[in-house]
Amino acid sequence: MNKRPGILCLLFLMSVSACLIYASPAYSDDYLTVSGCSVSYIGYLKDLAQEYERRTGIKVFVRGGGTVGGLENLREGKVDFAATCRNRIEGDPEDVEFIQAAWDALVFIVHKSNPIKNISIKDVKGIYAGRITNWKQLGGNNVAIKVFIARTTRSLQGIEASLRDMVLDGNSPVEGPNIKLVPTGGMVEQTVEKTPDGFAASGFTSARKRNVKILRLNGISATKENIIKNRYKLRRPLFLVAPKNPEPKVKKFLDFALSREGQRFIGSLGVLSLKDAK
């Protein structure tokens, strides 16, 4: 007697059961999902999620994907809340609230092998305006600067929004052969790690964890102390974004993130908590 059909049927039923078991947490109150800002994801959010699970037993699945992707996922109901490193702009979902959870600073990063250690605001403007295109113009090697920018066709990512508002007087970087576009800030940092001639804007909160060199700006290092005391000038907020009337499980996580214990934990990671800077 051929037992193969029966075995195949049993395997099929087992695979269906496994799929159902795997899918079920998406409908559970003991399960949270969040996506968005890569700076937040790398810098503090995945660690905060693990601490929350340790305290409550509630699993929080966190992924990056950029500010734009997080807000789109939230709009489409694919996640419970999102993370962003820019303020609300036109086109963002209207029925959500931007809740500041920490502080960050805009920084400029290069490959570890780059001899450049300092850059001025004037030089940064020159790079993004296309006037400075070779590292030799800044005292470095005679090689073209490869500028990496996180950008999508759908909306403005957090780093570029901050760059425009805080450094470029509201202007966009000039398109040119030196400009290389990638989808997310996390990918920008990873690309600079591997590109000796690379340059990019990023967030202090995540860049400090990467194998890159964070340039001094106008002679001031981007350290937690310098950002707190406003010696390093490009401080900016990091937000969690949730529906204006969130589900209880979402509100509990947000309450923890903003609580004394949650903020103390964020500060313990080397990130600027809300109380660190006013």
Q: How would you characterize the overall build of this protein?
A:
- By secondary structure, the protein is α/β, with parallel strands linked by helices.
- It has two domains: 28-103 and 237-276, D-Maltodextrin-Binding Protein, domain 2 (3-Layer(aba) Sandwich); 105-235, D-Maltodextrin-Binding Protein, domain 2, CATH 3.40.190.10.
- Helix content is 38%, strand content 22%.
- The protein has ten helices and eleven strands.
- The strands form two sheets. Strands 1, 2, 3, 4, 6, 7, 8, 9 and 11 form a nine-stranded mixed sheet that branches. The protein has a two-stranded parallel sheet with strand order 5-10.
- Helix 9 crosses helix 10 (260-268).
- The longest helix is centred in the N-terminal third of the chain and has 20 residues, at 4-23.
- The chain is globular.
Summarize the structure.
This protein has 278 residues and is α/β, with parallel strands linked by helices. 38% of the residues lie in helices and 22% in strands. It starts with a helix and ends in a 10-residue tail after the last helix.
Would you list the SSEs in sequence order as H and E?
HEHEHEEEHEHEHEHEEHEHH
How much strand content do the residues show?
15-25%
Structural class, from secondary structure content?
alpha/beta
**What is the share of helical residues?**
25-40%
The major β-sheet equals: 9 strands, mixed
CATH topology name of the largest domain: D-Maltodextrin-Binding Protein, domain 2
Indicate the CATH architecture of the largest domain: 3-Layer(aba) Sandwich
What is the assigned CATH homologous superfamily of the largest domain? Periplasmic binding protein-like II
Mean pLDDT: 88
Number of strands: 11
First-last Cα distance: 78 Å
Count up the helices: 10
* Number of domain modules: 2
Unreliably modeled segments: 1-27
Coarse morphology:
globular
Rg of Cα set = 22 Å
At the first level of CATH, what is the class of the largest domain?
Alpha Beta
